[in-house]
Amino acid sequence: MSETRTQSYANHARRHPPFHFFVIPVLVMNAIIAIVYLVRHPGLAAAWMVILALALLVLAFLVRINPLKVQDRVIRLEERMRLMALLPEPLRARIPELTERQLVALRFASDAEITQLVEETLKDNLSAKDIKKRIQNWRPDYFRV
Predict the structure, then answer these.
(1) CB 10 within 8 A of CB 22
(2) Does residue 47 sit within a domain?
């Protein structure tokens, strides 16, 4: 995937328009309509429609969240391998101390600044947000959806 804009902390979050601006709003509206119908016309069929509408909404979120979790696992593996190659020996032994969220955030750091950033992360237990804010030379990730 080729992107034309430079990625940074300010614009790295991605929205998938068909999901965020069509599927989710339609499913939320469907759930609201089903609930209103149940209130106005109580009955087994109306109650079932509410359950089905809520199940579809939960399904949509699971369809989104589960692949993101797999991407996080792959990123974690990639970053551990990258850190093994780039970090000096004393820091290599501390790679397992980094959390999944920290590893996912560190993927944006350039090779030149990764050592210092890992040291700061381990010393101060930085959050993913804090790690991203400290990155000077952003390594873009255009493949995440």
Answers:
(1) no
(2) yes
CA–chain centroid gap for 104, Å, is: 9
Would you say 142 and 3 are in contact if contact means Cβ atoms under 8 Å apart? yes
Distance between CA atoms of 107 and 105, rounded to whole angstroms? Answer: 5
Residue 73 belongs to some domain of the structure: yes
Q: Does residue 33 fall inside a structural domain? A: yes
Residue 5 DSSP symbol:
S
Confirm whether 39 is domain-assigned.
Answer: yes
Which range marks the domain in which residue 115 is found?
9-134
As given in the structure block, the two tokens for residue 98 are 């980094």
- Written as six digits, the tokens of 34 are 């089903």
User: Residue 44: what residue type?
Assistant: L
- Of the candidates 134, 131, 85, which has an alpha carbon nearest to the alpha carbon of residue 111? 85
Check: pTM over 0.85? Answer yes or no.
Answer: no
Which alpha helices (DSSP H) does 41-110 contain, by range? 44-86, 89-92, 100-106
The domain tally of the chain equals 1
Those residues whose C-beta lies under 8 Å from the C-beta of residue 140, and which sit 6 or more positions away, are: 3, 6, 7, 12, 108
Residue 1: pLDDT band with limits 50, 70, 90: very low
